[in-house]
């Protein structure tokens, strides 16, 4: 045992000496022995101050009462300094945010959230500290710590279901509620989840535009402002009024545009008639067509004569190309027939010389002909075979040339049809656009030319992402963001078309308050 204990002590001494050397070596390098001595003294003092209470408790025997004896200095050092008050605890109690009764259902105010709104929400959470000590006779209020929940604040869009989706809170129904109710509803939803005191600030970041169509000068999207009425929408979009001086100028411009479009339509119809005649290989235009009579009246004889001349030129060029192709093919056909006859003749001559050579070969064995005569016949047979090959090659080349000419003629015909078809398609598209604009101009002129222009306004108001409610509006009807306002001329029932039980009609809206 003594040997084991002694070995352990020796090992521990070696390890301690190594660690001491590791700790002392940097101080020796930096400041020498003085720095090492100062550092060791400071280390001893700190250790002695920390161990003093424990050493005193071990060295001083406990009193007869059984209480341990502690050095008074150790007690003074372990207690907090005098004069410091304890930190008051946090008050975590919170009450449910109050939500007014009007916020429990849809509000009647027009400036409420609708589908498509972008609502900016800022959510603040607060915690109250206990009141600090105060002089006698006074009461110090508690101190509130307020901080913004940046993880919850942001801009949210009202979806098709009429709600906004907040992180960690979920969906909160806000459609049909004003900003104050939105703040209360979001605050209650946040309290239900986190059980903390909070406050919410809401504002509209963006609102859907009001869409206007019908008998107005500026149809399209118009910005929404709070308190926007149908009368203001008509003033903003420019309701038609034939007594307005600007409307008189517009009337003159529309009449001129109608005349211009009429001429354009007749000209395009004449061009389409010419192209259709060219596609059908007709060189004349039908005289009994109403377009011809209208062209004579609006465009004059010169324009009609030019279209006829263009048609005749197109047909003549097509016929000339066709005649040239037919002449070329006829020439090739004659040359092919001649080459075929020459090939047949060469084939006959080759067969004759081949048979003659065979006969002379038999006669040579009988001694009736000589070798020179047989050789002469063989040479003639080879010449006949060479001529046959030349004639067949000529026939093949002529046949290939005829096929190429036929293909070129077919390609030319197809290209002509494609060009005429593309031109017809362009003319038809331009004619359709001119017809559509002409109808619009005529309809607007009819509205202008009425003695008493009466406008009827209907509003299509979205209910959700798939349904809309149709309302007939008065001049003072409030318009909401996202409404589709349709302005038309005619009689109106001016009531909620979705509610047939309402029998009370509303007065008509007249342009520029015309009575």
Topology:
Blueprint: H1 2-59, H2 72-78, E1 90-91, E2 118-129, E3 143-148, E4 154-157, E5 163-166, E6 170-173, H3 179-194, E7 197-206, E8 210-214, E9 220-222, H4 230-237, H5 245-279, H6 290-298, H7 301-366, H8 371-448, E10 454-462, E11 468-472, E12 484-489, E13 509-510
Parallel strand pairs: 8-12
Antiparallel strand pairs: 1-2, 2-3, 2-4, 2-7, 5-6, 8-9, 10-11, 10-12, 10-13
Helix pairs in contact: 5-6, 5-7, 5-8, 7-8
Describe the structure.
The protein is α+β, with helices and mostly antiparallel strands and about 525 residues long. Residues about 60-70, about 75-80 and about 490-515 have low confidence and may be disordered. It has four domains: about 1-75, no CATH class; about 90-135 and about 140-205, 2-Layer Sandwich (wza like fold); about 210-240 and about 450-515, Outer membrane lipoprotein wza fold like; about 255-450. Strands 8, 9, 10, 11, 12 and 13 form a six-stranded mixed β-sheet that branches. It contains eight helices and 13 strands. Helix 5 packs parallel to helix 7 (about 300-365) and helix 5 (about 245-280) packs antiparallel against helix 8. It comes from Paracoccus lichenicola. This is Soluble ligand binding domain-containing protein.
């Amino acid at each position: 045992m003594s040997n084991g204990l002694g070995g352990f002590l020796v090992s521990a001494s070696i390890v301690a000496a190594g660690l001491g050397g590791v700790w002392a070596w940097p101080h020796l390098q930096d400041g020498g022995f003085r720095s090492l001595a100062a550092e060791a003294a400071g280390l001893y003092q700190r250790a002695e101050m920390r161990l003093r209470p424990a050493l005193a408790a071990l060295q001083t025997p406990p009193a007869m009462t059984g209480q341990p004896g502690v050095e008074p200095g150790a007690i003074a050092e372990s207690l907090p300094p005098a004069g410091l008050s304890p930190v008051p605890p946090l008050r975590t109690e919170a009450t449910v945010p109050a939500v007014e009764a009007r916020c429990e259902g849809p509000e009647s105010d027009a400036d409420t959230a609708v589908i498509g709104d972008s609502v900016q929400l800022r959510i603040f959470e607060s915690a109250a500290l206990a009141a600090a000590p105060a002089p006698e006779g006074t009461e110090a209020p508690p101190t509130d710590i307020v901080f913004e929940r940046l993880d919850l604040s942001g801009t949210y869009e009202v979806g098709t279901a009429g709600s906004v989706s907040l992180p960690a809170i979920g969906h909160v129904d806000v459609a049909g509620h004003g900003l104050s109710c939105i703040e209360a509803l979001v605050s209650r939803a946040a309290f239900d989840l986190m059980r903390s005191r909070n406050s919410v600030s809401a504002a509209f970041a963006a609102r859907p535009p009001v869409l206007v169509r019908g008998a107005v000068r500026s149809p399209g999207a118009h910005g929404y402002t709070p308190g926007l009425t149908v009368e203001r929408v008509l003033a903003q979009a420019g309701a038609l009024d034939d007594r307005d001086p600007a409307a008189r100028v517009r009337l003159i411009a529309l009449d001129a545009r109608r005349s211009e479009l009429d001429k354009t339509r007749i000209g395009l119809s004449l061009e389409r008639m010419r192209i259709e005649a060219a596609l059908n290989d007709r060189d004349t235009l039908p005289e009994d067509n109403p377009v011809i009579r209208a062209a004579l009246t609006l465009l004059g004889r010169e324009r009609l004569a030019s279209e006829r001349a263009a048609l005749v030129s197109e047909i003549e060029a097509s016929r000339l190309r066709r005649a040239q192709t037919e002449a070329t093919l006829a020439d090739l056909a004659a040359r092919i027939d001649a080459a075929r006859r020459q090939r047949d003749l060469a084939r006959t001559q080759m067969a004759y010389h081949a048979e003659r050579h065979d006969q002379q070969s038999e006669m040579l064995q009988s001694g009736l002909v000589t070798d020179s005569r047989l050789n002469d016949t063989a040479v003639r047979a080879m010449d006949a075979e060479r001529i046959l090959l030349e004639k067949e090659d000529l026939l093949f080349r002529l046949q290939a040339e005829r096929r190429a000419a036929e293909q070129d003629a077919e390609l030319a015909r197809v290209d002509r049809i494609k060009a005429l078809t593309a031109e017809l398609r362009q003319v038809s598209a331009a004619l359709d656009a001119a017809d559509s604009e002409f109808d619009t101009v005529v309809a607007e002129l009819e509205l202008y030319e009425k003695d008493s222009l009466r406008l009827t306004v209907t509003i299509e108001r979205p209910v959700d992402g798939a349904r809309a409610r149709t309302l007939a509006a008065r001049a003072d009807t409030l318009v909401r963001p996202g409404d589709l306002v349709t302005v038309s001329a005619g009689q109106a029932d001016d009531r909620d078309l979705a509610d047939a039980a309402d029998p009370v009609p509303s007065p008509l809206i007249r342009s520029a308050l015309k009575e």
